[in-house]
Amino acid sequence: AQKVTQAQTEISVVEKEDVTLDCVYETRDTTYYLFWYKQPPSGELVFLIRRNSFDEQNEISGRYSWNFQKSTSSFNFTITASQVVDSAVYFCALSEAFRTGNQFYFGTGTSLTVIP
Amino acid sequence: DTGVSQDPRHKITKRGQNVTFRCDPISEHNRLYWYRQTLGQGPEFLTYFQNEAQLEKSRLLSDRFSAERPKGSFSTLEIQRTEQGDSAMYLCASSLVGVNTDTQYFGPGTRLTVL
Predict the structure, then answer these.
(1) To the nearest 10°, the Cα dihedral for B40, B46, B89, B50?
(2) Which residue in the set B55, B89, B103 is minimally distant from A47, CB to CB?
(3) N or C: which end of chain B has fewer CB within 10 A?
(4) With b meaning 16 or more CB within 10 Å and e meaning fewer, what string describes B44-66?
């Protein structure tokens, strides 16, 4: 079974629009970590955020914000006032910390294109 | 540059040849991970080391794959008798085990093409 589901394969928005990338996860553990990474065309995965399962506070960092809801097993990512530089593939990942040495389970990614 | 580095960035080889990739983690990080990523997919876990010990290997890691981290610093991933299905991006990541410090930081990857 897929542990992390990113149902949106591709999204296109016009610059300055807001966009939300969805992430749904599945785990039986009570202690786990959720991550978002950005993969620009150069290929390197860039860390964006880490959230542990005991911290459901939403977080905002500049134009980025994250909404963590344990009740729906979701960890969604919103970019406000999108810019062309936001164009990339975004991955959501789950780590079950005490099970397999922090192995990450990645979703299949959402490819975001911001049109100028 | 103090990030994770990988060498080479690109490798083209013929089927049946052996290839070896190198990863240099962030210097104080004690965990090192290898992932494989194919087009349109997220990275898939292959194996990881804590210091020099290889603690887990995925079922994806066939007998043709071997990884080492001899002194707990850099790591190598070798693929013997390459097959076309091995064509992928091979990603290395490192982390520091501890509270709030287990985030994995990724290198730029080695793109392997098997002809």
Answers:
(1) 130
(2) B103
(3) N
(4) bbbbbbbeeeeeebbeebeeebb
Neighbouring C-alpha atoms within 13 Å toward the C-beta of A40:
11
**Nearest chain B CA: its distance from A81 CA (Å):** 26
The whole-number average pLDDT for the span B8-25 is 97
Tens of pLDDT, residues B48-72: 999 999 988 888 888 999 999 988 8
Cβ–Cβ < 8 Å for A111, A89: yes
Q: Point out which residues pair with B53 in neighbouring strands.
A: B50
Q: Which amino acid is at B35?
A: Y
Contacts of A11 (CB under 8 A, 6+ apart): A19, A21, A110, A111, A112, A113
Neighbours of A71 (CB within 10 A): 6
CA–CA separation, A34 vs A28, rounded Å? Answer: 14
pLDDT digits (tens, 9 = 90+) for A54-113: 888 888 889 999 999 999 999 999 999 999 999 999 999 998 876 656 678 999 999 999
Residues of chain A whose beta carbon is less than 8 angstroms from a beta carbon of chain B are: 4, 33, 35, 37, 42-47, 50, 91, 93, 95, 97, 100-109
d(CA A52, CA A31): 7
Strand A10-14 to A110-115 pairing? parallel
